Amino acid sequence: MTDRLRVGIVGVSGYGGGELARLLAGHPNVELTYVTSGTYAGKPLSAALPGVAKRINLTCEKFDVQTAIERCDLVFLAGEAGLAMEHAPALIAAGKPVIDLSADFRLKNPAHYAQWYKSEHKAQDWIDKATYGLPELNKEAIKASKLIANPGCYPTSAALALAPLLAADLIDRKSIIIDSHSGVSGAGRSKFGLDFHFSEVNESIKPYGVAGVHRHVPEIEQSLSQVAGEPVLITFTPHLSPITRGILTTAYANLKADAGDLQALFNTYYADAPFVVILDAGQFPATKHTEGTNYCHIGMAVDTRTNRVIVISAIDNLVKGAAGQAIQNMNLSCGFDETAGLTMAAVWP
After folding, report:
1. Is the same domain home to 105 and 162?
2. Which end of the chain, N or C, is less packed with Cβ atoms under 10 Å?
3. Could you give the number of structural domains in the chain?
4. Domain encompassing residue 15
5. Is 147 helix (H, G, I), strand (E, B) or coil?
6. Which residue positions are annotated as catalytic (predicted)?
7. Across the strands, what pairs with 35?
8. Which of 60, 153, 296, 334 is catalytic?
9. Does the global pTM surpass 0.85?
10. Is 296 a catalytic residue?
């Protein structure tokens, strides 16, 4: 197995890190050689993730940057905020590319990071060296990058839904409204509080982060502004839904011109995007259809009465919204087939 890429996961016992372990166990080009967890240090990985028993025979350790350098060719950072700021520079200096699943390097303006994350960015010299890891928008840059900021789940679903329309200058960039529904796993494995108890979540849907206060707002606007070439403002309302996995995003915008053949527009824009599925006219996504996969399903329609376009996207928040996208980024940056280890079909029913 020495010809395989040796990879490590820092923060393996969280939902994102655990999904990385599950997916990497079946990747043809890598060997998982190092996993860390403060909670499960000294215990077998199967104690933290029973689902990988007999697939991965590793022991969780406390994170040590020098150990990561010695054992890994590439490191996934799936731990708490601030971890990448502190340790990515040393890993990269030692020749170990980093894919960071936190928000540490997603925002290009450090003032925005301070505003939305209530903390000063501690590695500002590295912000411009990081590549925002949304392959459908930044594929060539990702191929050359040693520090990849894996996007958030909501920003992934929103950007993929709206990018073709903004690139074609078909919509008013200040009219965009985005409603997203996420499964409870999006809150993370260590989240506490009544809001996430089964009896509070089950059979109930509720909004949160209302009126532009969710931390993903600047990330969504940054991606969409990049595509549009001009500033984009959005109204974004996320919702907690009583499902384990999945994000369903519905985006609305005023049309500036005749939309024409939307299916053709989206299919052309995503012609080189193996994980984007454009549904036929009149068909719309469901979270069940992307569960456990790295695919994004997109459907769209025009409300001719209001002259608004409606685009709906569905992803698995833990795969295309986190671990699967991180592996897609690894594949691109390491010269593997972009789809390696990620071609699984949805869990059904």
Report:
1. no
2. C
3. 2
4. 5-129
5. strand
6. 153
7. 9
8. 153
9. yes
10. no
